[in-house]
Amino acid sequence: MNVRSFAIPLIATVIFLLFWELLVWANGWPNYLMASPSDLPAAYERYWNLFLVMGWQTLWRTVVGLLLAVLFGLLLGMVMGFSRTMRDALYPLLVGFNAIPKATVVPIVALLFVGAHDFNTILIAFMISFFPIAVSVSIGLSTLEPEYRDILRSLGASKMTIFWKIALPKTLPEFFGALKVAVTLAFIGTNLMEIVSPHGRGLGALFDSGKTNADYPLMFAVLIALAFLGILLYYIVVALEKIFAGWAERPAG
Question: Model's pTM, two decimal places?
């Protein structure tokens, strides 16, 4: 990572925090109405142990849900990409499922699997994040030039060989683009379960505690912590993209 790619996001973050601070100051909002960035260090200092424990709980469950979404999304995308019939059959179902607000699904899942807090949270993170991966892989495979497939099939290559040797490398840019979206969606799913169906675990539970006690600095500190974890996972995906699909990156003009 060069200095420019590190400095520009840092400067943008500082400008955002300054604007936020000035907005609170200009409107004269007290911290029980709207916390400012200068209120957050005290919250982190007071609850640092809870942020470490609950931040880890949110992070590992999000990562597990995301990994399951990647595996399922790849398999589903392969099925839809290689078969037009399956694509026509499954795509409307996937669109319809994705259109359902997941906040309405959370209570159903919580009732179906009472007490299985980790499983419920991972399941919601998975359910909300696999869709863009499946669609991107499906589109990438369905637009694969038929000449490639015909030549490889005439040479005795199986569909799996065609996928690994030709189709997968071609779809990697679309896959990583979808994975960047799926990272944020997985965090949304995790925190939906932690907040809507509270079980005292994760940053969502810490946020809910702050809301119950009208501790606005704590609530905003949780939001910033979630943003930090999301950015961390995003840049991990960016690093993986440079390793596996760096050839597709166009030089900046």
Answer: 0.85
**pLDDT per residue as tens digits for the range 53-108:** 999 999 999 999 999 999 999 899 888 887 888 888 988 898 898 888 888 888 88
Q: How many whole angstroms separate alpha carbon 128 and alpha carbon 24?
A: 34
Q: CB-based contacts of 94: which residues, under 8 Å, 6+ apart?
A: 76, 131, 134, 135
CATH class of 40-248: mainly alpha
Instruction: Give the count of beta carbons closer than 10 Å to the beta carbon of residue 8.
Output: 10
CA-CA distance, 15 to 9, in Å (whole number)?
Answer: 10
80 CB neighbour count, 10 Å cutoff? 24
Amino acid at 18: L
Task: Using alpha carbons, list the distances in angstroms from residue 127 to 20, 59, 177, 192.
Answer: 33, 16, 18, 12
Q: What are phi and psi of 251, to 5 degrees?
A: -65, 140
Is the four-CA dihedral 24, 25, 30, 35 of positive or negative sign? positive
pLDDT tens for each residue of 134-160: 988 888 777 766 776 677 677 777 767
Tell me the two tokens of residue 201. 């675990």
Helices (H) and strands (E) in the chain, counts: 11, 0
Query: Is the per-residue pLDDT at 1 higher than 60?
Result: no
